[in-house]
Amino acid sequence: MRLELKGLTKKFGSFTADDDIDLVVEPGQIHAVLGENGAGKSTLMNMLYGILTPTSGEILIDGEPVSFSGPGDAIAAGIGMVHQHFKLVGPFSVADNVQLGREHTRGAGVLSARAARKAVLDVSEQYGLRLDPDAVCEDLPVGVQQRVEIVKALSGPKTELLILDEPTAVLTPAEITELLQIMRNLAQAGTSILFISHKLKEVQAVADKITVIRRGKVVAELAPTASESEMASAMVGRAVSLQVDKTPAVPGEPRLEVKDLTVVSDAGVKVLDALELTVNGGEIVGLAGVEGNGQTELARAILGLLKPDSGYIAIDGRDAHGRGPARRIADGLGYIPEDRGRDGLVSEFSVAENIVLNQYKDEPYSKRGVVDSGAVHKRAVDSIAEFDIRTQSPDESASSLSGGNQQKVIIAREFSRPRRFLVAAQPTRGVDVGATEFIHSRLIAERDTGTGVLLISSELDEIYALADRIAVIYNGRIVGEVAPDTPREVIGRLMVGAAGAPATTEPLNTEPLNDEDTDGGDR
Amino acid sequence: MSDSTTAEAPAEPPAPAAEPAEDKPNFMRLFGRYLTEANSVMVTIYSLLLAFLIGAILLIVSDEYTRSTFTYFFARPQDAWYASRDLIVESYTALFEGAILNFNTLESYQAGQAEFGNLLRPLSETLTYATPLIFTGLAVGLAFRAGLFNIGAQGQLIFGMMGALIVGFSLDLPIWLHLPLAVIAGGVAGGLFGAIPGVLKASTGAHEVISSIMLNNIAALFLVWALGTTFLHSTVKSDLVSKPVDDTAILPTLLSSLNPSLRVNLALVIGIAAAVFTWWLLSKSTFGFRIRAVGFNEHAAATAGMRIGSTYTTTMAAAGALAGLGGAALALGVSSGGITTNTALDYGFSGITVALLGRANPGGIVASALLFGALKAGALSAQPDVPVDISTLLQATIVLFIAAPALVKAILHLRTPRGGLVTLEAKGW
């Protein structure tokens, strides 16, 4: 299918989300749309998928203008979409999820399980996407769930164009590699792909053509040979240094000591297995590893939300045993959670309330159980200025901010009080390039004041950019501690189990990736 | 409140908007804009009007004579029109007279045949019925802010009643000590009973909706058993009535000096004080900050170091204490002569509706408790001319519309306010 967009524009009141977008996707081509958060990518895709109606401009499929009044029309026209947040019914089987909305029946409303299974197997065979039609979706690793979404999108009556909206945001590096291969295979089979992303490496690796969008406008059409810095500067509109300037670390006293830490999940799996780790003041230790190898549990155990089954954690030389999260925070533990929306912010609260979320009980924000809203407001005004949080006012709700600014609220919260040790888990996930740069420089500045920093990141680039020492976690153990100039391949081998085995697509851990039930802490 | 009000209001908005308006927004223009917008205040007002409109239709349908005039509607439509109009005006007037001001009494008063106190009687009844609803509404509303759906206000109220009663008849103290103690006993008993679902949720994860519903039954049946024991049972009456509380534990009436029939008592003042305190607690205290944070996002609250389990327990205990104070208001007030299994009526369950209508906001809860008290007082006094069910029906319809702002918006073609429609949602379902 050849897809062409001509002057596509979408206005919300006086705000123009997309302005005169021209774009052509040739058959069998992977076309990447690159842009920061809020650049108008999602609006564009929603128009293509019939969720939003364009204010002006037209969509042409194989030269014919089309208009969609809903996703049903888009599907009928041969467009399939894989959303960033999966739209799967968790307790349903793979086959049931794939047939959702267009169920296979034996007439008279009787479902045909056999036809549904066959349909899944046909598609997975045709495109080489391995799937067990009988598996229950919520039990599958995220990467496999995404495969279900892809198969679902491809199972449309005549899907020839696939929209992938930030498909790698939730995937592990191994899963990303596999997804990119799947995309290449699909393109070879003639499917056109529209790939929305802000991850430069992936775009570079897979795209045939790159369209960069900024503030709703097409600002550049690039070839995949374009360099990363070229793409990045097109995205943010100025030259961006991906390299962080920093001086060598001056390590001091140990600020985090973890010894023999073991956590057994409810399912009986050792998610942390006699883990040993030390982070000193004045250094950033990068914790590299494929997600789901115990990083989440380690962070939660350090904060005190997860009670270890055995082992020892000391923060700033003080045994943390028997001290709850509030005490540890008061002791000087900073914590940037990996899931901002779930653990980091109360999105209905104002920016000001979020900034004092873990300090509201302290002076001057409250006295004798009474919150001093004036002091809270003043603190928020200061933080907004210092951390360049783009918000209309401190009283605006946190949910009204963009992802990058939400993350800055958390950074402001953690960085504006005395702290001895900081856990930064995925500090720049879903954050645009400009904010990433800012957060990185703040982390370095933090280190230079003598704080110990544990940086947990699934992006090796980030670890390389910031870490003074790299620890690699695999299956709940630290399998290696290396210097930051260690080649990628070496770390990559450690990340998949030291033996040097190639990246597998099997889950490395029998534990489901979402950590719903590992919380043994307070509740 | 007649059909003319109902018909007028939706048509009202265009009038201010039609003012000769310049480009700059003047007051009338902003006001007109406000009226045609589906914001929470206007949705509440329109919900009331729509409910009275539906109530009017059902009044017509349920009245035999008016219905019969419709059988020859095409021969003499004016019969049906006049009959309907009279019925609606009379019914709603009767409700109004029972709840707010009786026009006959007003005439007698002007003629010098009635005292001023007589005039206040409907209002006193409204306030009397509203008082327990303020407490139970606050009990549900407070828990709601912590993300907890407290269905157990009924049981908490019953335990509050018993706690206040026992202290009320068993101790022999001067009034300045006895009355406060009895009131506090009601709060403590309700609080302890209310804490149970909180403790169960915090320690075992048992859902508070299920446990608090079941605890309502336990409380109701416990009351039946307790009333039969020699400790509680009346020494003079043979039916299932408790002993009366001592005179030193009775809540003093506020206006009986004007007229002995004015029943409204000190509990109303305590209720309003409780509402002010709840508002202060939620918006100004660190405890309230924690309640709201946990209610909106328990994960972020836990990550910020707040203890979720203890927040659930303390919030439920506080909610139970509020409902328990409502029980004390009954046992030491209108039912100080002895409580029965009927004394609690459905105040606890109506508290859920009151909290919803008040959007879990203390001020809103007081206002909606007054409205429901008025409907109750009006319905009881308008019997048998107006079926008592009409009041229940009005309550249900009002809440239906409030809970579905999109419905009101669609019916009246209102504009979407900035920030979208406000719907109250229960967490944990």
TrEMBL record, chain A:
Name of one Pfam family that matches: ABC_tran
Q: Which residues cross the membrane?
A: none
Q: One GO MF term, please?
A: ATP hydrolysis activity
Q: Where is the ABC transporter domain?
A: 3-240, 256-500
Quote the protein name from its UniProt record.
Simple sugar transport system ATP-binding protein
PANTHER family for the chain: CARBOHYDRATE TRANSPORT ATP-BINDING PROTEIN MG119-RELATED, GUANOSINE IMPORT ATP-BINDING PROTEIN NUPO
Question: What is the taxonomic lineage of the source species?
Answer: Bacteria, Bacillati, Actinomycetota, Actinomycetes, Glycomycetales
SMART domains in alphabetical order: AAA
Composition bias (Acidic residues) maps to 513-523
Keyword annotations of the record: ATP-binding, Nucleotide-binding, Sugar transport, Transport
Task: Spell out the residue ranges making up region: Disordered.
Answer: 502-523
From TrEMBL, chain B:
Enumerate the residue ranges of region (Disordered). 1-22
Q: What is its main location?
A: membrane
Q: Could you list the residue ranges that cross the membrane?
A: 38-61, 126-144, 151-171, 177-200, 212-232, 262-282, 316-339, 393-412
Any single GO CC term annotated in Swiss-Prot or TrEMBL for this entry: plasma membrane
Q: Does the keyword ATP-binding apply?
A: no
Gene Ontology MF annotations: transmembrane transporter activity
Membrane topology of this protein: Multi-pass membrane protein
Q: Where in the cell is it found?
A: Cell membrane
The protein's UniProt keywords, in alphabetical order, are: Cell membrane, Membrane, Transmembrane, Transmembrane helix
The answer to whether keyword Cell inner membrane applies is no
Recorded hits in PANTHER family, A to Z, give:
ABC TRANSPORTER, PERMEASE PROTEIN (PTHR47089), GUANOSINE ABC TRANSPORTER PERMEASE PROTEIN NUPP (PTHR47089:SF1)
This protein is called what?
Answer: Nucleoside ABC transporter membrane protein
Q: Which organism is it from?
A: Glycomyces sambucus
